[in-house]
Amino acid sequence: MAGRGETRERVLRTAAELFQRQGYHGTGLTQVLAESRAPKGSLYFHFPDGKEQLAAESVALSGRELAQALRAAAGEASDGRAGIVALGEYFARALEESDFSKGCPVATVALETSAASEPIRTACEGAYGDWLDGITEALRGWGVPDSRDVGELVLSSLQGAVMLARVRRDAGVIRTVTARLAELVPRA
Amino acid sequence: MAGRGETRERVLRTAAELFQRQGYHGTGLTQVLAESRAPKGSLYFHFPDGKEQLAAESVALSGRELAQALRAAAGEASDGRAGIVALGEYFARALEESDFSKGCPVATVALETSAASEPIRTACEGAYGDWLDGITEALRGWGVPDSRDVGELVLSSLQGAVMLARVRRDAGVIRTVTARLAELVPRA
DNA sequence: AAGTAGGTGGACCGGTCGGTCTAATCTGCT
DNA sequence: AGCAGATTAGACCGACCGGTCCACCTACTT
């Protein structure tokens, strides 16, 4: 038998990646199970509420991990301008390296389900809240006034640009947008 | 028999609305047919390539109509600041009036399918292209330099903000974001 | 060694999916 | 009137959907 909770973790990570690439309704449980080499019984043992719970936890997991990556990217930057560009570069690279299939790990599921499933909607809202907190914090550190409002602008622009980039199969928008955004922030 | 092409039109409009609310995979043909009171035979007569064609045409239709609405909203504005705010207000109201179920008519389908269906992806890209052209044109009219790049920023921010608003069930972000965006534009 | 949770393997279920097909029906033309 | 093409009507198809169920195996307890 595999280690404690090992199967649960494997299923969850597989699900998170598939949801990110194909969305909620586009991802079948059969596919999740096949790719994580787990039987159906295990799924419903670890996630009694089925697909909905799996999606909510996937979104929460992706949200936590991305928030961490964002904080790291922002932390390394010498000033605000470099920081914002680094944020964009993170998404741009992820997109390019995955042949434009790995965009925002939350957006697709969020749009599909936020009107239909309250648990998933709440998980998505939480993820975005974490990111906004991280960005706001970084902006404040860089001396940006009204950092919360500017944070909303940065988060929105980034989300929109990542979506546009996926549709166009060209990450150029992300770089254009972050370059413009960077001008809102004082130099070091 | 109904007028020429009347059934086709009815099916297409119903599909466009359902795709906007529920996404591609979340919308069944059965539902489209039931709500547009059309039999399956008609669907495959008017749309021989099935669901994929229906989605591509729905996106194109929504794109055309929204581009028109955007141009109208921008045209009425006295200056750039008012224009950008009006753009945001258009989406904010649509969201609020539909209990946050009618967001961007393209985004959900775009994210779900752009990696899997080239015809749909192309249709989405076209819709976004039209909007960008409209916004860029308006910005140029308002005397904004580098209007194309700023247009990309405006489009991205708006898209991201509309998505966030749906998830939060609160259109506040849209207004916050457009207020910030408006500052990028010279006063009348 | 026997008992018992914790976890796995997978057959099975009703329902719905997108799609096909053929018969019936309408409309305009001659 | 009667033909021809356009359109509708919906039964039907195999595949797959998410979900349930239970027999089974394994590791730890006593």
Automatic annotation (TrEMBL), chains A, B:
Organism: Actinomadura yumaensis
Record key words, sorted: DNA-binding, Transcription, Transcription regulation
PANTHER family (alphabetical): HTH-TYPE TRANSCRIPTIONAL REGULATOR LMRA, TRANSCRIPTIONAL REGULATORY PROTEIN
Domain HTH tetR-type: 5-65
DNA-binding region of this protein: 28-47
Keyword Nucleus: no
Pfam families registered for this protein in UniProt: TetR_C_13_2 (PF21993), TetR_N (PF00440)
Signal peptide: none
Protein name: TetR/AcrR family transcriptional regulator
Classification lineage: Bacteria, Bacillati, Actinomycetota, Actinomycetes, Streptosporangiales
